[in-house]
Design brief:
five-stranded mixed beta sheet, 40% helix, alpha+beta, disordered C terminus, 12 helices
Length: 416
């Protein structure tokens, strides 16, 4: 399978200017291609092909006074922008026909230099390379310093340079993993687990283990509010407002990174210890719209739901299970896991959220609400048979930006 390896870049002042120039040129070509296709559609003409756009928007545009600065960046970066427009239109048409999984995709929109995320891509034709000193050589940019947190298993064919809203730079590589090496890293086991996700505890396992919710956003709320107040008081368009915006973005990036690291560590541990994992298919958007138990505003519960990051955690479980040959199953979200006795199967009916323990009137078993739900999640998927050898095909997943990694481990050491 394919995974995405991301490493932090530390470009120098001149390299930042060169990267900014490359981001701008790629954005202009992207917008010109979107405009050309819009004009063709308005005129009732077929969409111009990539070769035609390459000639008109890159080759001939470089010879004009208005677009002569396109020659200051690598032509591969500009060509990849055209490929991105073509891929965006293809995704739109496939989504419109109902043949694409996930949320519906809209028509490609124009990019802005004020967008929070900017990226460019170098393929093998650009002749980028990794120097023996560990620096990343990029055409017309130079040798950029990289923080290698682990070694690349194979030589990648392309690299994507990303600048996020916090002003950080990353080099992203898509790598084809070796199934034999993955199987050796995590040998098979006979354990199976069911997971019940919640807010009081982030996850409750069917073996009775309860994992507390770190509440990263709630803990950083005071710092975020202060930074946002400072931002609101700055004059629009001023340099101080730009500094304040970066301060807010960096504070939010710290929260997101801490949450992602927690999800990676927990998901890797569960995948390593269990051959079969099942989790309830939650409707995160629906849960975020519900009111809290004490009748607080909807945004109160919505903030806690999104702070937990259940969707990101479940996605990590899915692709790691596919990578290491584990069985991953999502149970029906309408399964009454909190209402059924895990010992005798008696359906005792719905219960208010403040009821955390209850006794089965049939068999007399005393249940912890969350542990009982986790046991029912495991039983609903039939994981006992799956862990003993039944094949359950995991769902296909896209390459992730990061996987459970060895942050802080020097290059050359074995990744976790």
């Amino acid at each position: 399978m394919q995974l995405r390896y991301a490493f932090r870049l530390y470009p120098g002042p001149h390299q930042r200017l060169a990267l900014g120039r490359a981001f701008g040129c790629a954005r202009v070509v992207f917008n010109d291609a979107v405009r050309a296709r819009q004009d063709a559609q308005a005129a009732g003409l077929p969409y111009p092909k990539a070769a035609e756009l390459s000639q008109s928007l890159i080759t001939r545009a470089k010879r004009t006074v208005e677009r002569s600065w396109l020659g200051e960046v690598s032509s591969v970066v500009l060509q990849q922008s055209l490929r991105d427009v073509e891929a965006a239109h293809k995704a739109f048409f496939v989504s419109r026909k109902g043949q694409r999984r996930g949320a519906r995709v809209g028509v490609p929109r124009f990019k802005s230099r004020k967008d929070s995320r900017q990226s460019i891509r170098f393929t093998a034709n650009a002749r980028w390379s990794i120097a023996p000193t560990g620096r990343l050589n990029l055409p017309k940019i130079g040798a950029v310093r990289v923080k290698w947190s682990r070694t690349l298993p194979v030589v990648p064919s392309s690299v994507t340079v990303i600048k996020d809203s916090a002003g950080r730079y990353f080099a992203s590589f898509v790598i084809d993993t070796d199934p034999a090496a993955d199987a050796a890293r995590m040998p098979a086991t006979d354990q199976a687990i069911g997971i019940d996700l919640g807010l009081t505890h982030f996850a409750v396992l069917s073996d009775g283990t309860k994992i507390d919710s770190p509440r990263f956003l709630r803990r950083a709320e005071k710092k975020l509010k202060k930074a946002q107040r400072e931002l609101s008081r700055k004059q629009k368009g001023s340099r101080n407002r730009k500094k304040a915006r970066l301060k807010v973005a960096r504070a939010r990036a710290q929260v997101a990174d801490a949450r992602k690291e927690f999800h990676h560590q927990l998901s890797t541990r569960l995948i390593r210890e269990n051959q079969a994992i099942t989790v309830e298919d939650l409707s995160v958007k629906g849960l975020a719209r519900t009111k809290s138990v004490k009748g607080l505003a909807r945004t109160k519960l919505a903030k806690s739901v999104h702070d937990a990051g259940w969707s990101q955690f479940v996605t990590m479980l899915a692709y790691k299970a596919a990578r290491y040959g584990r069985s991953f199953i999502k149970t029906n979200r309408f399964e009454p896991t909190s209402q059924v006795c895990s010992a005798c199967g008696h359906h005792d009916g719905p219960k208010p959220l403040h009821v955390r323990e209850w006794t089965c009137p049939v068999c007399g078993t005393r249940h912890d609400r969350d542990v009982n739900a986790a046991k029912n999640v495991k039983a609903a998927a039939g994981l006992a048979a799956s862990a003993c050898g039944a094949k359950v095909r995991p769902e296909p997943v896209l390459a992730q930006r990061e996987e459970a990694g060895s942050h802080g481990i020097p290059a050359g050491s074995r990744a976790a």
